[in-house]
Design goal:
The complex is a heterodimer of chains A (about 200) and B (about 290). Chain A has about 200 residues and is mainly alpha-helical. Chain A starts with a helix and ends with a helix. In chain A, α10 packs antiparallel against α11 and α10 packs across α13. Chain B has two domains: about 120 residues, Glutathione S-transferase Yfyf (Class Pi), Chain A, domain 2 (Up-down Bundle); about 150 residues, Rossmann fold. Chain B has 15 helices and eight strands. In chain B, strands 2-1-3-4 form a four-stranded parallel beta sheet, sandwiched between helices. Chain B has a four-stranded parallel beta sheet with strand order 6-5-7-8, sandwiched between helices. Chain B is globular, with a radius of gyration of 19 Å. The chains are: A mainly alpha (about 200), B alpha/beta (about 290). Chains A and B meet through α8, α9, α10, α11 and α12 of A and α3, α4, α6 and α11 of B.
Chain lengths: ~200, ~290
């Protein structure tokens, strides 16, 4: 089992990544920007679709991961940043692990999400960006995640007040949710968030 | 032997039973854990899709505090935290400019650095396995368990540097060492839907259904996990999944440390088995 699946073993046998001859004039500006900002080169993708076959959420996406990689190569920035794919990626790292060209696809998805948020594109899945926003302000404010606070903030942000009410009550009864936040380390997280914000302006 | 210990947010709340059972097991095997003072959230599912710098600064700030307190190795039991720590270390090892930027943000320059371990890693060495076998008090051989590793412990392998990424064995070895019968099955490293639980619940229901179905089809009495997110999805959503797919599982989702604890004779109250939504009584009935 190990021999067949371990990527390193494959490399040792001389079956490593394939070098492709990509004429520079065929590289899209969008692919170039992604490479410059994140160091990730999708141009080496040869559309084997292992990423898509292994992706647990591809069934729900409007473009599969392989299609999205191709769209980047074609420079279709609007299509890519407006896709549901970038928000539905579960960050399970299966694509990254199996890519024969060692494209860190899960990392490309992160890069695209960051790009979409920063360029002010209205995300296809507002509840997912609301989840990021509320999660981050929760960490910044409390230092450690305060789940009950996150659930409340998310309900306010999405308007889905009755979602999972029964489950929430069951979990409270089992003592699974902490009633009060800790605030430990909150001065540290506030400082880190501020410094990151400052740095990202540069 | 003494390690620094980073529990992370879940082990102080939803996954308290993982924290308590882990500490009890480590105490039994004679490994000391010292909780990091003033630890902060690692950024988990929230930082990496929104800011690369933040996603690195949060885990590395914790490692900086650990290094300052004189430790060179830390145990990180939550799979999501473990993944964020390992990804951060991998990023700064390979991108010196980024490393300098992050060190500026966290106001610490690493000297020797800190090694990050998952409990499955430290407990599955040959020495620890035979030590565990020597400590067995209860017979759990009547219990058939499917070990579920999830995504983030083993993927991507060049970052996690841990076990086999497609068919891991460390949890199976540990549970076998304490007399549990573990099963071969196809969903060891499939995704449970992770953080979509609160936003796109239907994805979690589908993916977790596939995993529960896989475990049921090989005759599992329970599923063992090492990740609070996997545990929450498979346990707290199980009833909803049963309703949606018109089936029954009654599969208790236990942290592997709880099973080890039962086997080593740690009192069940200490293992917080009653905190689960799916009843764990059936598991205890199989203990001899």
């Amino acid at each position: 089992m190990k021999e067949v699946f371990e990527p390193k073993a494959a490399v040792d046998k001389g079956c490593g990544t394939m070098e492709l001859n990509i004429p520079p004039e065929t590289v899209s500006e969008f692919a170039e920007i992604i490479k410059e900002t994140s160091g990730l080169d999708v141009n080496v993708c040869y559309q084997c679709k292992k990423c898509t076959s292994g992706c647990p959420v591809s069934y729900a996406m409007d473009y599969t991961p392989a299609q999205l990689m191709h769209a980047i190569r074609l420079g279709l920035k609007d299509l890519v940043l407006n896709s549901t794919t970038i928000w539905l990626c579960a960050s399970c790292e299966t694509c990254t692990t199996r890519c024969p060209q060692e494209v860190d696809i899960a990392n490309v998805m992160d890069t695209l999400r960051i790009m979409a948020i920063r360029t002010g594109i209205k995300p296809k899945m507002t509840e997912i960006t609301a989840f990021y926003r509320t999660g981050l302000s929760n960490i910044r404010f409390f230092g450690r995640m305060y789940e009950l606070g996150l659930i409340g903030m998310l309900k306010l942000a999405t308007g889905q007040f009755t979602k999972d009410m029964d489950l929430g009550i069951k979990m409270l009864k089992k003592g699974k949710l902490k009633l009060l936040p800790s605030f430990q380390g909150s001065s540290m997280t506030k400082r880190i968030f501020a410094k990151v914000k400052e740095q990202e302006k540069v | 032997m003494k390690y620094a210990y980073y529990p992370g947010c879940s082990l102080h709340s939803t996954a308290k039973e993982y924290d308590k059972s882990l500490r009890a097991v480590y105490e039994k095997v004679g490994i000391e854990l010292e909780e990091v003072k003033n630890w902060i959230c690692c950024g988990s599912s929230w930082a990496h899709p929104t800011s690369k710098l933040l996603s690195l600064a949060l885990p590395l700030k914790n490692l900086a505090e650990i290094e300052k307190s004189g430790f060179g190795e830390v145990i990180v039991p939550c799979a999501a935290c473990f993944s964020r720590f390992k990804i951060a270390l991998h990023a700064v090892d390979n991108e010196p400019q980024l490393a300098a930027e992050v060190e500026g943000i966290i106001e610490h320059k690493f000297k020797d650095g800190v090694k990050v371990h998952h409990p499955l890693d430290t407990l599955s060495s040959n020495a620890e396995l035979s030590r565990l076998t020597g400590l067995v008090k209860n017979d759990l051989s009547g219990l058939k368990v499917a070990c579920y590793y999830g995504c983030l412990l083993t993927r991507p392998p060049k970052v996690t540097e841990f076990d086999d990424c497609e068919y891991p064995q460390s949890m199976d070895k540990i549970l076998q060492a304490v007399g549990v019968s573990t099963l071969d099955w196809s969903y060891k490293t499939d995704c449970c839907g992770a953080s979509f639980a609160l936003t796109r619940t239907e994805i979690v229901l589908k993916l977790s259904h596939d995993i529960l179905e896989g475990a049921k089809s090989v005759g599992a009495d329970a599923i063992a996990v090492a990740c609070p997110m996997c545990q929450a999805n498979l346990d707290t959503r199980q009833e909803e999944i049963e309703e949606k797919y018109q089936t029954t599982y009654h599969l208790p989702i236990l942290y592997f440390t709880q099973l080890v604890g039962i086997s080593l004779g740690i009192p069940v109250e200490k293992l917080l088995l009653k905190r689960h939504l799916v009843d764990t009584e059936d598991v205890l009935e199989k203990v001899r």
